[in-house]
Amino acid sequence: MAVNRSAGGGATWPSLPALPDPATETVLASGLLEELSYALGGPFHFLLPDAFDANLRSMQATLEDAGVDGFVYFAKKSNKAAVWVERCAAHGAGVDVASLGELREALGHGVRGEDVVVTGPAKGPDLLELAVRQGALIAVDALDELDALLATATAPAGAHPRRPARLLLRCLPPTQPHSRFGMTDAELTAALDRCVGAGDAVRMEGFSFHLSGYEVGPRADLAARLVERCLKARALGLEASRISVGGGLPVSYTDAERWRAFLAEQHGGHYHAGKSFGSADFYPYHSPVAGAGALAALLSSRPQGAGQPLAGLLKECGVALLVEPGRALLDRAGGSVFRVQGVKERDGYRILTVDGSSLSLSEQWFNSEYLPEPCLLPRSSEESDDSAEPGDSPGVFPASVGAATCLESDLLTWRKVPFRQRPRVGDLLVYPNTAGYQMDSNESPFHELPLPPKVVIDRVDRPAEGQGGRPRWRFDRHFLRA
Predict the structure, then answer these.
(1) Cα–Cα distance between 379 and 359 in angstroms, integer?
(2) Residue 274: inside a domain, yes or no?
(3) Of 298, 329, 360, which residue constitutes the final position of a domain?
(4) In this model, does residue 345 exceed pLDDT 70?
(5) Cα–Cα distance measured from residue 74 to residue 437, given in angstroms and rounded to the nearest whole number
(6) Could you tell me if 171 and 230 are in contact, meaning their C-beta atoms sit under 8 angstroms apart?
(7) Is position 140 within any domain?
């Protein structure tokens, strides 16, 4: 059931708990989060690199099991922490970057230049120069960008010979003709001619696309079209041996029954100030196939008009598959912790104010709501001077979560979450599974509040000796450098 009745037996409140995760539950039970909150004096994020490693291994194994030559790039935009890049360097993965700063971070934390793919539109000259010098693969989004890359590739290199510029040509998806990313058929024809004319200055390694949404069928269909383009480009003398399908591998945060029930039950009365969201406004928090399972579904899908699954087509034509997941590699790889510093009673629910802002829980950026519910960790009994309150019998205590800012709209959670315990000042709220895009996509030191630090928790299953069973932790190196 995804509906809870209030303590008074009246209103009902849709519930959407996250899927169980043993590593996160171990951290919650260890007492470490309370200690860190006290030591850091504000909100923070914790990172679980073991989960990232497991997700990466699953994707690499999926490609291997399908007999497909492929490579996994981590989409760095999904989380700024250095630890993910370090894990990529250690486990044979690449990094997808879209700025000069991201490229420098990837190189500085151990990823080889040839294992970096540079995406994003209209790349600046400094980014192109460094990418070419380091042998990175560059996804070219437009003809003027190709001209800039060719100029970089043919410019005098100084004391050392210049490497050929490695590139993919990004295609405009036929099913999304209004996308601002990619080139039309006519532009691709012109781009191929320019690549042929550039000779040894470039290596045109294939094609890529950016496709919104998470459906497998359209992604498989477009991938098959890119395989055909590779064959035609080879006839022109170009290498054209790989295609990139970008990201778009979904994460399943909750189970199917709870997700269906939540969508059926929720309405404006379940949110502070009557704010309403349509079902289409939410990320699909349940997916029947997710992560490596979604990649397997893509490989086994039969593109429209093809006589075999995509995996067979790739193998037959000698084309490698590149994928650029972000959220899917970060599934269950961390959470976000805030302390309650104020509780305001309203008609039938509470407004909790925490020591942070929605800028550190970025779904509000998309005019949406992060729906997996925070876990309430009550403050220790030693700190409590009012441990008993009237009406504190077991029940449901709905509460929205506001930020410690002066903006009316700054709520981490508009929904009246049905907590099983009465929230009080000093309690911790732990939002689960926030590593993918939530922690830092929209962060800002608004009100001069410091950005929440990121704490890496290594080997949750092996607590340090003499630590009372608590996992070991350290600051992420990106935070230390900042």
Answers:
(1) 25
(2) no
(3) 329
(4) yes
(5) 13
(6) no
(7) yes
